[in-house]
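RECORD TYPE: inverse folding
INPUT: structure tokens
STRUCTURE:
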């Protein structure tokens, strides 16, 4: 009787795992699952599209070897017996976090990761660890650009930015921009590239590039960073 109950519990557990994998297969987020040894046992289509690895290339491999995730200070997050795995295996909640992983082609990609735990089977107390992935690359780039702008603003207040920025007449710097140039300045402040600006405004990259050059000329600055710094300092764009 005990053996039959054990078999039934295992079968029920396997059925639960099948339902979990079916749910993850339809998820918009990238998702993969690791066992107690941190070996990947499941990898969905969204994860493949995000990182370039097909399931057959990662199943059975340690997750830390595939992702190689690092933090903003370039310290390893993904490693054997990492904090995330050890915390999750105790059944404790893990706060979502950002990590910089490498795609199959070697491209750096920031990921926001959420962790869920799931029983491996009805009679096994060791959970599987479910990783849900969202692409956070653009958000990180914008955050880094904002930090650069704020640092430049501090230098501006301290008198370290190019004299051309400080000396240009305010009337020239605030009244000469066209509405389209103000729109582009706002997009620059969000950290968008020339290509992204062109796509956002449905114009060609060369047209976007010409607008940027006009903005730099009218504001009497030498770089996009100086233009955005001045724009923040003088309320030409919102900080929100």
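DESIGNED SEQUENCE:
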């Amino acid at each position: 009787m005990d053996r039959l109950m054990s078999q039934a519990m295992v079968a029920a557990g396997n059925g639960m795992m099948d339902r979990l994998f079916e749910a993850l297969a339809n998820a918009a987020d990238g998702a993969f699952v690791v066992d107690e040894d941190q070996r990947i046992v499941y990898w969905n289509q969204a994860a493949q599209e995000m990182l370039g690895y097909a399931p057959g290339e990662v199943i059975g491999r340690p997750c830390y070897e595939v992702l190689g995730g690092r933090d903003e200070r370039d310290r390893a997050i993904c490693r054997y017996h990492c904090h995330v795995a050890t915390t999750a295996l105790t059944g404790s909640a893990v706060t979502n976090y950002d990590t910089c992983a490498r795609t199959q082609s070697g491209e750096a990609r920031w990921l926001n990761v959420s962790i869920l735990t799931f029983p491996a089977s009805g009679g096994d107390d060791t959970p599987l660890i479910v990783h849900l992935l969202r692409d956070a690359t653009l958000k990180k780039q914008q955050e880094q650009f904002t930090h650069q702008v704020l640092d430049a603003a501090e230098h501006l207040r301290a008198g370290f930015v190019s004299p051309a920025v400080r000396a240009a007449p305010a009337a020239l710097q605030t009244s000469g921009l066209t509405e389209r140039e103000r729109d582009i300045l706002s997009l620059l402040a969000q950290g968008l590239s020339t290509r992204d600006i062109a796509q956002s405004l449905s114009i060609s990259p060369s047209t976007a590039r010409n607008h940027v050059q006009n903005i730099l000329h009218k504001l009497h600055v030498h770089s996009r960073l100086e233009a955005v710094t001045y724009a923040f300092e003088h309320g030409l764009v919102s900080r929100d």
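NOTES: The radius of gyration is 25 Å.
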